[in-house]
Design goal:
- The chain is of the alpha/beta class and about 250 residues long.
- It has a single domain, classed as Rossmann fold (3-Layer(aba) Sandwich), CATH 3.40.50.
- The protein is about 50% helix and about 15% strand.
- It contains ten helices and seven strands.
- Strands 3-2-1-4-5-6-7 form a seven-stranded parallel β-sheet, with helices on both faces.
- The radius of gyration is 17 Å and the shape is globular.
Length: about 250
């Protein structure tokens, strides 16, 4: 299916690995030019190089999404290198260890601020940096990475779920503001997905136990999320906005 993304300019935050890289790769395979906005410059550079082999323009820009000045500088660099941002994927996230709220409280509370800053404030900062140019152009696609934990709650992920819940509310609210300008804003809510970060936290025994809660009897693959993201980035999804869409193998149906 040709999603008619050839030549579109997309920014993927946290695009150096995991879900972000999977989304960036699928966008590139559809012909979009990609900016990898990533705090880890090494992984960003590797990702950008791999995308160039697909035949699109791609470059890496070191970005701290929690710093508005860093985000503004990133957007200016993208505009100079590729052109105005037409697609923004707010994927950068901070995934804490799977600890109960009490365990977190008694260990390192700074992690809470980091989770909220990266997951929520990061999306706000990046959206703020591109929204006016999208309004002027009368076109834009913003895809925010939330979580199924935001919809149904999840033990041992309380603060993370709260930050992602804020993303869902932000998505719905911004969508109502900017729909009149031809801008679509949606959130994707994955359940547990086998990224490198998640695999480092999961023991084989724990994974076997978790999988039993999924009707599809497997955890998510980053490409599962990327398939939906690329569709939402296309004009095939022009009548979809303000939605928080689960990709979860049936784990939760709320």
């Amino acid at each position: 299916m040709d999603l008619q993304l050839k030549g579109k300019v997309a920014v993927v935050t946290g695009g150096g690995r995991g879900i972000g890289l999977a989304i960036a790769r699928e966008l590139a395979e559809e012909g979009a030019h990609i900016a990898i906005a990533e705090i880890d410059q090494s992984s960003a550079a590797q990702a950008a190089a791999s995308l160039k082999s697909i035949g699109v323009k791609s470059f890496a820009v070191a970005t701290d999404v929690t710093d508005p000045a860093s985000v503004d500088a990133m957007v200016k660099a993208v505009v100079k290198e590729l052109g105005p941002v037409q697609i923004l994927v707010n994927n950068a996230a901070k995934l804490p260890q799977f600890l109960s709220f009490v365990e977190e409280k008694n260990s390192d509370r700074q992690v809470w601020s980091q989770v909220v800053d990266v997951c929520y404030h990061g999306a706000i900062n990046c959206t703020a940096a591109v929204i006016e140019s999208m309004i002027e152009a009368g076109y834009g696609k913003i895809i925010n990475m939330a979580s199924d934990a935001a919809k149904v709650g999840e033990p041992r992920q309380a603060v993370y779920a709260g930050a992602k819940g804020a993303i869902v509310s932000f998505t719905k609210s911004i969508a109502k503001e900017v729909g009149r300008y031809g801008i679509n804003v949606n959130a994707i809510c994955p359940s547990m997905t086998k990224t490198e970060a998640v695999q480092q936290m999961l023991s084989e025994e724990f994974e076997k136990k978790v999988v039993k809660a999924y009707p599809m009897r497997r955890l998510g693959d980053p490409r599962d999320i990327a398939h939906l993201a690329v569709f939402l980035a296309s004009d095939r999804a022009s009548w979809i906005t303000g939605q928080a869409i689960s990709v979860n193998g049936g784990y939760a149906t709320a």
